[in-house]
Design brief:
The structure holds two protein chains of two kinds. By secondary structure, chain A is α/β, with parallel strands linked by helices. In chain A, about 40% of the residues lie in helices and about 20% in strands. Chain B has ten helices and nine strands. Classes of the chains: A alpha/beta, B alpha/beta.
């Protein structure tokens, strides 16, 4: 029987990465993801891997870039301010087309943000790309410890398969909430051979690899890079889009949420159903590529959409765009938080509880 | 009848690792071409070309060095070569990894990356090209620009009251515990070229033997941005540059001492 453990999302990320064949971790401490580098520093040396604590997130991302060029399965993890520091490197990794995985355990707010407060305020940066030069990354958004464990394995598989950067987006709640995880090893087709890896030309039959930039690699004409990448991105769109629906068959209102908000929304669906309201949930799992066609069909069938996200409203922009004005799209954003102390401006941090969502549902039906 | 003896010994030739190109990347009188040749010769002599990975920083080394030297090579974002080199070396400890970085790349934007690689005591080799200015972008001030030296961003000369003093990287590296070798060289005369070859070979040897970081700084001419003819550049190096940046070895150790419990 597969081993089962009670672990939080951060540890599930770390264990999932090792299960996915990642032996090399380069990272820098930042709350709330410190459990990941701490776990890696403890466990990787035992299996012949390497953990390096870098001097900054900017250095972490370049260690990941170097490690990816060396042909290894490498990763780093960070939280929002650190993710901002990595944008330049992410753009370079996209240009070089090397496979790697970066985990962003979101915390709330711009600037230093709030290390101790939950939030989902990186959606726009992560999905639209904070770095320069019109690139794309595959983005996976797990919503449980089990999915953290499973999708880390998937992330390394997808990175190698398409030679792209895969971002895994979780948040404070997912990262620090403990659940039972079945440590199951997922089976994927074997990855393509990395005959392009930099480890000395003797390993490549005496023929060396020279990476200067995409402008050189693709014949000195930058548009050729984009033509090539358009094909890669299309293939990803054709094959890798993932989403999940919950009790939406006869719904008259469709909730839409990812990550921790999807957990709250799922509970709200059950509570609303118990009251006799026909409500369903649509949960995108890949945030890029987004399940556009499936969402459009579901939204048109249901007729009304409520986006739940712990942010002032980022995902809702994409949903409005996808629904093309055919159905009304409502938002329960950061103002929907419940704070026991009362006023959100003066009170505690709060989160969007299922009860808050239920209240909004009652108002919309 | 006298017998004519013809020696067949080869006395000069292009190194095998030097990729033949139909053009030169470098301005007339630039010393980078000589340094490319030097790297090729040293890698061949050590017989490590099959397991060597090079990383070039941003600047005049960005494209020309990777394209010209026939080993696995990548160019790096500005100043980040030591971080990328760290990962490659840690993942494949049997490879020989070196970086080629200019003074803007290593001394300015990438000083943190470089210093932290030294702090960690990585087993790497760094070739630092000091031409006292930003060559590629048109001759702006670098951390290594001499006091009073005119550049496009110090039109009246570098003023130490507002722009500070030149950065002495080789001396700085020598103060770090994890560094096994640190030297400053030039290639502006045949004698100096031979000394530079010996220094570079030693720096690579320290990595091959697993002792510690090897660092070699080259004072290099930039005729275009110094607004000097190539012969005047050589004069400038021997009179002005060496006065500020003395040549020689600043550190050369065969063992980096560890506390007893960590040996």
């Amino acid at each position: 029987m597969t081993e089962r453990l009670l672990i939080d999302g951060n540890e599930a990320i770390a264990r999932g990465a090792i299960a996915g064949g990642c032996n090399y971790f380069f990272g820098y401490p930042i709350t709330p993801q410190n459990e990941i580098p701490e776990f890696m520093s403890r466990e990787l040396p035992k299996i012949g891997g390497v953990f390096v604590q870098s001097e900054s997130e900017a250095a972490s991302v370049y260690m990941v870039y170097g490690g990816a060029l060396a042909g290894a399965r490498v990763m780093t993890s960070t939280s929002s301010p650190g993710f901002s520091l990595m944008q330049e490197g992410i753009s370079y990794i996209a240009e070089a087309e090397v496979p790697a995985v970066i985990v962003n355990v979101m915390r709330m707010g711009p600037g230093i943000g709030t290390g101790g407060q939950h939030g989902q305020t990186d959606y726009r940066q992560v999905t639209k790309g904070g770095g320069h030069g019109a690139y794309r990354c595959i983005i996976l958004a797990p919503y449980s410890s089990q999915e953290c464990f499973d999708y880390m394995q998937l992330a390394f598989h997808l990175a190698d398969k398409y030679r792209v950067l895969v971002l895994v987006l979780t948040d404070f709640i997912i990262g620090r909430m403990a659940e039972v995880v079945e440590l199951r090893k997922l089976e994927f087709e074997p990855p393509p051979e990395k005959d392009w890896a930099l480890k000395g030309k003797a390993f490549k039959g005496g023929r060396r690899r020279c990476y200067v930039s995409a402008a050189f690699s693709y014949g000195g004409v930058p548009p050729r890079y984009y033509h090539h990448m358009a094909e890669v991105y299309q293939k990803i769109k054709d094959e890798e889009i993932k989403h999940e629906t919950y009790r939406d068959e006869d719904a008259v209102l469709l909730l839409l949420a990812y990550g921790s908000s999807a957990r709250m929304a799922k509970r709200a669906v059950d509570m609303a159903r118990a009251e006799g309201h026909r409500v369903g949930l649509f949960r995108p799992i890949t945030l890029w590529p987004f399940s556009e066609e499936a969402l459009r069909q579901a939204a048109c069938r249901v007729g009304k959409v409520l986006v739940v996200e712990d942010s002032p409203g980022e995902l809702v922009e994409d949903v409005k765009c996808i629904c093309q004005g055919k159905v009304p799209v409502h938002l329960l954003g950061i103002w929907g938080r419940y704070t026991p102390q009362g006023d959100i401006m003066t009170g505690g941090s709060g989160i969007i509880y299922p009860e808050n969502i239920l209240e909004k549902i009652r108002g919309l039906i | 009848m006298t017998e004519k003896i013809v020696s067949r010994k080869k006395v000069w030739g292009t190194p095998k690792l030097r990729v033949p190109l139909p053009f030169s990347f470098f301005c007339p009188g630039c010393h980078y071409g000589i340094i490319v040749r030097l790297i090729c010769e040293v890698l061949e002599e050590l017989g490590i070309e099959g397991r060597t990975v090079g990383l070039a920083g941003v600047g005049c080394s960005f494209g020309p060095f990777p394209v010209s030297i026939d080993v696995d090579f990548t160019s790096c974002p500005h100043g980040r070569a030591p971080a990328m080199a760290t990962a490659i070396k840690r993942i494949h400890p049997e490879t020989v990894v070196f970086t080629v970085q200019g003074d803007g790349d290593l001394g300015s934007i990438g000083l943190g990356c470089f210093m932290n690689a030294l702090i960690r005591g990585e087993k790497l080799t760094t070739i630092f090209l000091n031409n006292a200015c930003y060559g590629t972008t048109g001759g702006q001030m670098a951390p290594t620009t001499l006091i009073g030296m005119k550049t496009t961003t110090t039109p009246e000369g570098r003023d130490p009251r507002t722009a500070g003093f030149p950065l002495h990287t080789a001396e700085l590296a020598a103060t770090m515990k994890g560094v096994a070798y640190s030297a400053r060289c030039t290639v502006h005369s045949p004698a100096n070229f031979r000394r530079a070859r010996k220094a570079l070979k030693t720096a690579f040897q320290k990595q091959i033997d697993g002792i510690g970081y090897g660092f070699v700084e080259f004072l290099s001419a930039c005729p275009t941005n110094w607004r000097l003819s190539p012969p005047d550049c050589i004069k400038f190096i021997s009179e002005k540059m060496i006065a500020e940046y003395p040549l020689g070895e600043f550190k050369n150790v065969d063992v980096i001492e560890l506390p007893e419990e960590w040996r």
